[in-house]
Amino acid sequence: MAVVQYNESDINLLARLLRAEAEGEGKQGMLMVGNVGINRVRVPCSDFEDIRTIPQMVFQPHAFEAVTHGYFYQRARESEKRLARKAVKGTRLWPAVYSLWYFRPPQDCPATWYDQPFVGRYKSHCFYEPTAEECEAIYSTY
Questions:
Q1: Among candidates 42, 44, 28, which has minimal Cα distance to 88?
Q2: pTM score > 0.90 for this model?
């Protein structure tokens, strides 16, 4: 059972995003990028109130470095498509379980990012999730 609506084109698009944003982080890192993206689609919070589809999430202006700076050109491989399917079906990994943001700083993870608290790091990426007061829906189960 999927946690967001999707079609095969959406899987390809999400898989390309996973590869472009986190190929160097391995399968777990790519899945965590997928977790953040799916969280942005499924909850109407913060900068993502109007994001309801995978294409809207991927192409939201200034949302992903890989899309903004042209690293988003590689085709989706089967391994990334499998990870994209896991993400849309609700597989979540800590620290991205409830995260709406991540980024790759040059050094240590800042305590906050876009006023959201730091929850954990996986390899080079720092993950941030909203508080319950700011986004109660993120903490619902599916």
A1: 42
A2: yes
